[in-house]
Model the fold of this input.
Amino acid sequence: MWRDALLVAGKDLRIERRSRVAVNQILPVALAMLMLFGFALDPDSPVLARATPGLFWVVVLFVTVLAVERSFSLESADGVRDALRLSGLHPGGIFLGKFAALAAQLAALQVVLGFGVVVLFGRDLAGYPLLLATLVAATAGIAAAGTLYGVLAAGLRVRETLLPLLLLPVLAPVLIAATRAFETALDGVPSDGWPWFNLLAVFALIYTGFGILAFGSLLEDS
Amino acid sequence: MTTPHTAASTPPPTDPHAPDPPTTGVAAPAHTGSSATRTLGLVTLAAMALLVFLAFVASPRDQVQGDLVRLLYIHPALAWTAYLACGVATTASIWHLVKKTPGSDVLAHSAVEVGAVLTALTLATGSIWGRPTWGVYWVWDARLTSTALLFLLLLGYLALHRIDAAPEVRSRRAAVVGVLLVPNVVLVHQSVEWWRTLHQDPTLARRDFDFATSDLFMFTLVYSVVVMSLVFTWLLIHRFRVGWLALQAEELWLDTAIEARRAEGAGTTEPAETTRTEPPRSEGGLP
Amino acid sequence: MSGDMTYILAGWGVTLATLGVFALSLAVRGRRLSRMVPAERRRWTS
Done:
C-alpha cells in the first residue's frame, strides 16, 4: 500500500512539475485573493492585522477547491481512472498517494502565502512550534477531506459546482480550529492553542482513515 | 393497474396538516398510502391538534419567557427530529456501504430530504424565537451554527444524489457523504462550542427559564417531541415510498429503453416508439 | 406581549404550513410516480 502511495504521489507531482498548473495558475490566484483582502479591509486600520489568520485560512480553503479539481481532472482524462483501477494498485494506496501529492502542493502554497502575509499585511510571525504544527495538521485534514470529496465529484458534469458545496461546509471546523490556533500563536498565549491542534489532528485522522477504507468502493464503478 | 381498487374504496393518504389531495381524476388507486399509514396519519393529526390545544390554551405562561414559551413547544421537537433524520441517514448509509441494497440508499435519501425540511424549520423557528428573546435573529451559538452547517451538508448530499450517473454509482457516492454526516456535525459542534466559549461569553444562549413553574410545561415539551416524531415517521415512510417508486420507474424506463435498442439491433425495420419516451423526471432521474 | 404573539403565531404557522405542503407534495409525487409503475411493484398498496 505504501509503495503504491509513493507511486501515485510521484506521478501527480511529476505531472505538476511538467505542467506547472499549481505554480502558474493556482498560486497567483491565491496571491490575488490576498491583494483583494487588502483592498477590501483598510490596510492602515488594525482590522487587517486582526483578521490575518482567518483570511489566510479562507484563501487556503478556496485554493484547496481549485487544487482538488486540478488533482482529479488529471484522472478523468483518457480513461486514466480505468487504468488506475486496472493497474492493481491498492485503493488505499491510491488515496494516500493523491492525498500526499495534494498535501505537498498545499503546504508549498501555504509557505508562499505565509510569506505574502508577512510582506503584504506586515505581520510578524511568532509562536513557531504551534504555527508549524497547526500548518501540518490542518494541511493533512484539508488534503484528506479534499481527496475524499474530490473523488466523489470527479467525472461528473457538475463537478466544478458540486465540489465546493460538498467540501466547504465540511472544512468549516478546520477553518475555525486553524484560525484560532494561529491567533493564539501570533497574539495570545501559544499554549492555549494546543486543543485546536488536537481537534485538527482528530479531523485529519478521521478523514484519512475513512478515505483509505472508502476509496476502493468509490473507484470500483464510474 | 390490475388491482381491483377504485378511488372510492381507498381514501387518499392522510395528511397531517394539509387538506386531502383531490381524489377526482385519479382512476387507479395509485398513491403511497396504505392502511397502516392512514391510521398513523389520523393519529398524528389528532395528536397534533391536542398539541396545539396544550400549547396555546392549556399551558400557562412562563414567568421568565412569557408567552414565548409557546414557541418552545415546537422548536426543540423540530430540532430533535432533524437530528433523528440525520442519524437515520448515517445509519442507512453505513448499511448501504456494507450491504449495497437499493432500499438502504432510498431510506438514506428519504431521511436526508425530510431532515433538510426539518432542519430548515428548526432554523426558522429558532430565529423567530431568538428575535424577541435575544433581540436578534441570529447568534453564533454552537447549536445554531452547527444546525446551519448541517443544513448545508444535507443540501450537498441532495445535490450529490441528483447527479447524472448510474443509480449504483450515485447511491455509492451519496452513501459516503451520508456516513460522514454525523461525524461532521459532531466536529462542527465541538469546534464552534470551543470557539464561542473561548472567545465570547456563552451566556447569551444559555438564559435559563424556570422549568419548575409548571408540570404541564414539561409534559407539553415531551409530548411535542412525541408528536413531531410521529410526523417524522409519517413523512419518512411516504418519502421512502416515493423514492422506491422513482427507483422502479427509472429501472422500468431503462428496461424498456434496452428492449427497444435490442429490437433495433435485431433488425426490426421500425425503431420502437418507446425509445423516444422521456425518462421519468423525478428524484434523481436520468437527465 | 401582543408583539410576542406575532412571533409565536409566525413560528407555528411556518412550521405547520411547511410540513403540510411537504406532506402534500409527497402525496402528489407518489401519485404521479405510481401511475408509471405497475401494481406488482407497489407492494404496500392494500
